[in-house]
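Need AraC family transcriptional regulator's 3D structure for a figure. Predict it.
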Amino acid sequence: MEIWLLVTAIFNFLMIAGVIQGFVFNIATFSSRRKIENPILFLNLFIFFLSLNNLQSWLRDKGFLFNEDYWGHFTIPWYVLIVPMFYAFLIYYLELESKRWPYLRLSLTLFVVELITRSVVYYLLGNGAIAQEFASLYDSLEDTVTFSYSLFLFVKAIRLIYKYQGLYPDILAYDDLRWVKKFMFLGGVVFALWLLSIFWNITGIVQKPYSFYPLRLSSSLLIYWVGYQGFFRYTMLKNRIVLRKEIRKKSKSTFDQGYKMFANSRTSRGAETFSKVKSHILKEQRYLDPYFSLEKLAEELDMSVSGLSKIINTNSNTNFSDFVNAFRVAQVKELLASDDFSEYTIAAIGLECGFNSKSTFYSAFKKNTGITPVQYKSQQR
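Structure prediction for AraC family transcriptional regulator:
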């Protein structure tokens, strides 16, 4: 019995901690942005309704809500709006609002209908007009309807991510959506636990509120993860869209600066070809392509891969990867030193300068400069 009380206490702590984190996230997000874009709005509403639902459950289980019979078990069906808000966030994040419905009106209608119906059921129950068994049956029916509707939107979200990528090629140029795919996996676990809770409630194998404990705990953990990921990724996306336009305007200064690199390490053998190779990479800004490879360069210059590799190694005293990364780092340094780019995150700058991951960017920058991008930026101020 003591072990079960300890487990319950830990569960309650984790759930209320998740609720607090969710509300803090909402406050911090709205207070830190001058303009609240639709993706940020619906991401915050997703976290807000999830937090409200868990807070309400925690307060009810603790006995802090109504004490009267029947009404003490009444709750507002916030959980109806959780999945719809994430689906709306996804629609606006992928810029598909003109191609796909966000189902906002239908979701709000379902919420209002369930709220009114639930109020009527509990009013009749409190006046003895219906039996407790009928109220329990309604709860199970409402859970089933909400689960089915939420699952419907969840499946539509999965299809958007895995089947209809052709609808948003511009977004995929900046975000591979791996974080969304991870969320879909975690969301699938939550749905499985939700279905399990409904089964427990219908069969009576596990009684309320314990039947909802796994579901509430998993949703609380989801708040921690999706709050950071969604906000960070959207901020990164907007930064990269603007950065990509600005970086490509700086081709002249980058070309002049980059062309001077490796100038002192050239040898007479293959020097002219090496100069053409470097000129091509800089003039065409090929170093900004995170998937740029020695094979691609050889094809563009109509050279053999082995011959091109030898020329680069001989004249730069380094391999192809480090050779291209040196241009990327030079571009990053230029942007970090400019006040015009001070509002953009360092990670966004690194990714838009051609690095395919944050870790690769930080590693290459320190290898070329001996310090981290953060340290370099602080030295420029």
